[in-house]
Known about the structure:
InterPro entries: MADS-box/MEF2_TF (IPR050142), MEF2-like_N (IPR033896), TF_Kbox (IPR002487), TF_MADSbox (IPR002100), TF_MADSbox_sf (IPR036879). It is found in: Nucleus. The chain is mostly helical. The protein has 3 domains: 14-79, SRF-like (3-Layer(aba) Sandwich); 80-113; 117-152. It has 6 helices and 4 strands, in the order H-E-E-H-H-H-H-E-H-E.
Amino acid sequence: xxxxxxxxxxxxxxxxxxxxxxxxxxxxxxxxxxxxxxxxxxxxxxxxxxxxxxxxxxxxxxxxxxxxxxxxxxxxxxxxxxxxxxxxxxxxxxxxxxxxxxxxxxxxxxxxxxxxxxxxxxxxxxxxxxxxxxxxxxxxxxxxxxxxxxxxxxxxxxxxxxxxxxxxxxxxxxxxxxxxxxxxxxxxxxxx
Length: 192
């Protein structure tokens, strides 16, 4: 008694569909292997499941590139031309971006001629530099806020003429014979 034919249509249940795919994939791969051995055929079999998993079989006597190259010759199509053109377009776009970024870097470090820039471009460059400088200041302050504030306090003090803390102690030479007692006493150390 033979099997009845099943109607070929999409299987609605996803788990049943995956099981059927796995079984039929194994069957197709087996048939491809047999065809390669029996007939010395070169073939390439590429399958993607509904989940995107790749399954492939390539004849042991060939590589995927040789099979595709032979297909291009016989069919008269060029599989790689559109891909090559896309890569060339992408390369051109990336070179333009790279050139633009290099020009901006040269402008920011002062190695590019700023005379060629318009007034608006100069204003934009100035704003960018100010925001970059503010970012650097913020980063310095976050890294060591005590150093940053102590530096500010000391520069303000020097600016106001209050320099007494710059030279905290000054040692004055003393004459032991004149001071009445040998060595240095507390009165020998005084603030400068």
